[in-house]
Amino acid sequence: MPTETEVAAEISGPAAYDRIRTSFVRFWSSVKLAVVLILAIAIASTIGTIVPQGEPSGVTNIEGMSERTKQILLSIKAYNVYYSPWFLSLLALFFLNLAVCTYVRVWPRLQFALTRPREIPVAARDHMPEQQDLSGAAVEDVATELRRARFRVFPASDGGLVADKNRVFRFAPMVVHLGLFLILAGGITAGLMGFKNSFPLVPGEAMGVEQAMKEAKTRGLLTPKPADFKVRLDKFWMTHYDDGRVKQFYSTLSVLRGDKVAHTQTIHVNEPLEYEGVYFYQSFWGIAAQKLSVARGIKSEIPMNNQGGTSIKLSGWVTSRLALGGRELFAYTSGISRPWYLLDMQSLKSLGELHTDEDLAVAGHKLRLGEVKTLPGLGSVKLRIGGETRTVPVESANRFKLSGYISRQLKVGEFKVFLYVESPDAELQVIDLDSFASLAKVPLGASAKVEGVDIAFLDRGHSAETGGLAAVDLIQDGERIGLRVIDLASTGFRVQAPSTETTEVGGRAVIMMQNTEPPGMPLWIIDAHDATALAILNPGESQKIGHSTVRWDGPIYFSGLQTKSDPGIPVIYAGFFIVILGTLMGMFSHQQVWVTIDANGCRLAGKAARGRYLFHQDMTRLRQRVLDASSKGNKQWAQTPLSSTHRA
User: Fold this and answer.
1) Phi and psi torsions of 350, nearest 5°
2) CA-to-CA distance for 179 and 451, rounded, in angstroms?
3) Which terminus has fewer CB within 10 Å in the chain: N or C?
């Protein structure tokens, strides 16, 4: 029985080391492990392709996905796959697997390929797929013809020959492995040392590269500090197709070193600016702000929010469709005393205002506004509160997402109340302002007590302003066209576009909206309270809003740039090129032949890694040349019949 010392020596001795080394090599050179790692990398790359990269919102905004799945994707940083530690770990593990596999499987073949062709026993040559009978030929003639066919020829120990051709193509596996090494090394380098960020610039604005790197959501753990320079947007413009769609957009950029311009270049999509290893791509564009001129020449720039845009359920009235000049149009107004706008039904582009005393030219036709037919509405209610008779104005309750009419605040006893009438013919309701509870319902001509105070509903005051619209006439080239009018409150029609925050214009709280596509879209100025369009303006047009006249001077566009530093890209490209080269090398065949001398002369045996039929044809032609060369010295060989054997 071995002693404790002998057991310890066996565990820690060379045998134990060999077992550990063998297990390590066997595991890490496994083709099965390589397949598992490749599948894992492919799945990770698929996630990185499907999930928008850069921001967690890329995950949270995915529609049709359960919250649990989203939480899992967020926990593994699926919005930043290629820079995540787990993805880089997969690349590193595959790199190790490939290295050990290369050492175990490819390196011995490479060493074998670097030596002279191997001799094999004569008996083994009889089993080669290619056999050629060279009876009567001199071994010197065989060697000469083999060299002419670009074979490397060496003397064999038995007096014959051993030769091979296209030895370099045996290096194809090593070349492919080298390319894969470079691709993996480039991917790891990019994930550890690269960064990517996107930012908008308006003409004249500059961004420092160091700042762009610090603010980047996508960057590696070992990203080096970039050079200290800035990029300034000098000019931004677009070209368009005939139908108005954007064809291409351009940015002229200047690289600033301090106050000096070091480089200037115009970029467009797929044509970036590269400076000291940092790339600037033309990525996107949008509207940065709206330029307005208010009364007394005051100019302002209202910033736009481009994150997904705003959706507003629009209030107002629209007409039925009007076909004119091959286009479908409709008219819109936000109120009885508000302007009427003629809009394109497909693009919602404003074609101008409709007036009763002025023609609007559209597609070779003249349009003007005719009679507007209104519905009866409620403008006020006449009450007796206690002993006092009062006329209380009411307005549409649309801005409170209600139908009917509502008054402003009143005080009845100790209560603060407001009045609500569901329709022009309905009873009057007294509503508590704090609890929104109904304190009393008073039919016309009746009275009720609220906190001991008598409230009598005496009369209604009708108003077309609050009643709504029934129909409108348009005069087209002197002929009247009657159009039906639809209340948008009954349709759920929405306007969605990039918008400003709520801002004050002319004493009114408004939201401004403008779509970027197609170009030339109007600016919608919408009341923030009741969602009615106060103005629909084309550049240069004016409209009175509240107590001010506002002119829209047009949008200020921004250029969206993507800045990227990826030191691994050249390495990855080199790896792809080398893999392609190795694959092409693998398409050519390494050929080996052995020439044996016997009593009848010479016999050739050979094999090719692929293309055996072509190899057989080459050997048949070589045999003929050898026999022709030998026959010049001895005419008897001219009578020798051809003899060759090819084994599939």
Assistant:
1) -80, 130
2) 90
3) N
Distance of CA 1 to the CA centre of its chain: 71
pLDDT of residue 646: 45
Q: What CATH architecture applies to the domain 116-166+589-646? A: 2-Layer Sandwich (3.30)
Q: Which DSSP letter does residue 121 get? A: -
- The model carries a pTM of 0.62
For residues 178 and 99, what is the distance between their CA atoms, to the nearest angstrom? 9
pLDDT score recorded for residue 399 = 66
Identify the pLDDT of residue 7: 44
Distance from C-alpha of 283 to C-alpha of 562, rounded to nearest angstrom: 6
Q: Residues with Cβ < 8 Å from 162, sequence gap 6 or more?
A: 116, 117, 118, 119, 153, 154, 155, 156, 592, 593, 594, 595
Q: What's the rounded Cα separation, in Å, for the pair 589 and 612? A: 9
Whole-angstrom Cα distance, residue 31 to residue 77? 29
- Check residue 643 and give its pLDDT: 40
Can you tell me the distance from the alpha carbon of 574 to that of 569, in angstroms, rounded to the nearest whole number?
Answer: 9
**Token duo for residue 109:** 């073949």
Predicted pLDDT at 588: 86
Cis amide leading into 443 (omega within 30): no
Q: Which residues pair with 455 in a beta bridge?
A: 385, 448
- Ranges assigned E (strand) in 375-488: 378-385, 388-396, 405-407, 410-412, 415-421, 428-432, 438-442, 447-450, 453-462, 469-476, 479-487
For the chain, the domains span: 4-110, 116-166+589-646, 316-375+468-492, 378-462
How far apart are the C-alpha atoms of 338 and 354, rounded to whole Å?
Answer: 11
Q: Find the helix packing angle between 31-50 and 85-101, rounded to 10°.
A: 150
Alpha carbon distance 17, 562 (integer Å): 52
Rounded Cα distance, 54 and 42, in Å? 20
DSSP annotation of 639: G
CA angle 41, 42, 43 (to 5 degrees): 90
Contact assessment for residue 559 and residue 282, using Cβ atoms and an 8 Å cutoff: yes
The C-alpha atoms of residue 350 and residue 346 are separated, in whole angstroms, by 11
CB 195 within 8 A of CB 224: no
Tokens of residue 136, six digits: 């009567």
- What is the predicted pLDDT for the residue at 465? 65
Look up residue 64 and give its two tokens: 């049709």
- List the end-to-end C-alpha distance of the chain, in Å, as a whole number: 59
* Short-list 342, 207, 336, 203, CA closest to 278: 207
